[in-house]
Amino acid sequence: MASSTTHRYALILGVSSGIGRASALSLARDGFNIIGVHLDRAAGLEAARALQAELQSHGVEAHFFNVNAADADRRAEVIEAIRNIFAGREGAQISFMLHSLAFGSLLPLIPGVEGERTATQKQINMTLDVMANSLVYWTQDVLAAGLFGRGARIVAMSSNGASRVLPTYGIVSAAKAALESYIRQLALELAPHGITANTLRAGVTVTPALEKIPGNQVIQSHAEMRNPHHRLTTPEDVAAMIALLAAEGSYWVNGACIIVDGGEDAVDLTWYGREDLMS
Ligand SMILES: NC(=O)c1ccc[n+]([C@@H]2O[C@H](COP(=O)([O-])OP(=O)(O)OC[C@H]3O[C@@H](n4cnc5c(N)ncnc54)[C@H](O)[C@@H]3O)[C@@H](O)[C@H]2O)c1
To answer: N or C: fewer beta carbons within 10 Å in the chain?
Structure first.
């Protein structure tokens, strides 16, 4: 069991589910205290409380905040609360920050022949704010508050949707492209602070966010067929990579976009529908 006296904290934006949840468990097993931000109600909130208790059972602290991570006032409150947690704990610092927020509009940009509803300006702004811009604001404010330790690592979750087209994924796709671009820029600008920034592109992973994408069953079955391992990525597959990036030896990985999908993205689309070739 990890020591409860560790002063390394991981700030996880999107802690309560999917990749954020699996990463919190993996980092807690490695001795990180967890500061988690999530947005849940009802059953989701109960699951978040159960996760918090599970993290604490690993002998680390778990502080959760059920707030909108894209709201500037809530962000300021959480950062103030982190300052208070760190007060009197000499050497307490955020050594790892994960951006794993999934919340966006899955609407087309242009109406089809049946005149489908398209995304509004407000929905586009909200999606970009939660899934991309919030990375910059959290990074700026955590840094300004002096809470990042030297050698801290920032990781943001992306997908191959950052450079591929999928119906109704246009706004999230734009957010992913922005997120990857922000990470490259942060990698440059944070180097003087000894902080690295990298993106992970996860393969298709069954989570509540995936299940909200229209046609996700087709996405899942194609990914399963296309993946050299003929299975989908799990949150634990991604969390294992996150643990590597949080470990000391990864300090020279910076500004990278790392694909964590078992080889799914590398397989050419020609294989689609040709199970007979996949013996
Ligand atoms: N699931 C996949 O197939 C897949 C693949 C590649 C990349 N990703 C990316 O990984 C990240 C995590 O996705 P997931 O599939 O684990 O999603 P998920 O739905 O399981 O979890 C999303 C988390 O974000 C939190 N959240 C959402 N909006 C919030 C807000 N405004 N403020 C605070 N918390 C908020 C939720 O409470 C939850 O903890 C996303 O960026 C997603 O695009 C997912």
So the answer is: C
